[in-house]
Each structure stands twice: as structure tokens, then as C-alpha cells.
Specification:
The chain is mainly alpha-helical and 130 residues long. Helix content is 76%, strand content 0%. It is built from six helices and no strands. InterPro entries: PSII_Psb27 (IPR025585), PSII_Psb27_cyano_bac (IPR017488), PSII_Psb27_sf (IPR038450).
Length: 130
């Protein structure tokens, strides 16, 4: 009896984890490509006009990207010590904090300016290999 329950649970977990890993994946698992992609997507989102009709959907996508990127690369020791990751992490934390605390408010100009600089710096650093 225990064996069949364990087998059923194992199969359920296998099916569930495989289904989630195939659906909605935005990242490739290649740190350089993912960093450039996330930085570019976030830059596009934060530079949308506040009254742009696509902004709410872009912000939802940005939140998902931030979460996926952070959960994928923060635990990786060979990545999380790089200056590109540190810069990227700073930008992601700032943007995620704004979305969590002030979801209905526009980004303040000073935060938008800082995010633009940090995201561009992170993308340039990762391409350089830093």
C-alpha cells in the first residue's frame, strides 16, 4: 500500500514539475543571455508612458521576470559574485520594491533614472564578462 502511494505521489510530482518547467519559461539558463534579456525587457517597461495601454501587462511580465531571474541565479555561486549580478540585483530589488509598495503609482523620476543606469551597466558588464 505504501509503495503504491509513494509511486502515485512521485508520478504526480514528476508530471507537475515537468508541466511547470515547460510553461511560461522566459529564461534560457544562459546567464549572459538572460541578463541582457531581462535588462532590456525591464528598460522597455520602465520607459513606457504611464498612460500606455500595454503598461499593466508589461509590469506583470516584469514582476515574473524579476522573480524567475532572481530564483534562478541568486543560488548560483559562480554567478552571484559577479559585478554584473550585483548591479542587476540592486536594480531588481529596487523595482520589485516599488511594485510591491506602490503598484498603482508611477516610478519616481530619480528611481527611473537610477534603474536606467543600473540595468544598462549590468547588461554591458555581463557582455564584458564581469
Amino acid at each position: 500500500m505504501r509503495g503504491s502511494i509513494a509511486l502515485c505521489l512521485s508520478l504526480c510530482l514528476l508530471v507537475t514539475s515537468c508541466g511547470n518547467s515547460l510553461d511560461g519559461k522566459r529564461l534560457t539558463g544562459i546567464y549572459i543571455d538572460d541578463t541582457v534579456t531581462v535588462a532590456q525587457n525591464l528598460l522597455n517597461t520602465i520607459n513606457l508612458a504611464q498612460d500606455d495601454a500595454s503598461r499593466p501587462e508589461a509590469e506583470i511580465e516584469s514582476r515574473a521576470l524579476i522573480s524567475e531571474y532572481t530564483s534562478r541565479y541568486r543560488p548560483q555561486g559562480q554567478v552571484n559574485g559577479l559585478s554584473s549580478f550585483t548591479t542587476m540585483q540592486t536594480a531588481l530589488n529596487s523595482l520589485a520594491g516599488h511594485y510591491a509598495s506602490y503598484a498603482n503609482r508611477p516610478l519616481p523620476d530619480d528611481l527611473k533614472e537610477r534603474l536606467n543606469k543600473e540595468l544598462k551597466k549590468a547588461a554591458a558588464s555581463v557582455v564584458r564578462g564581469a
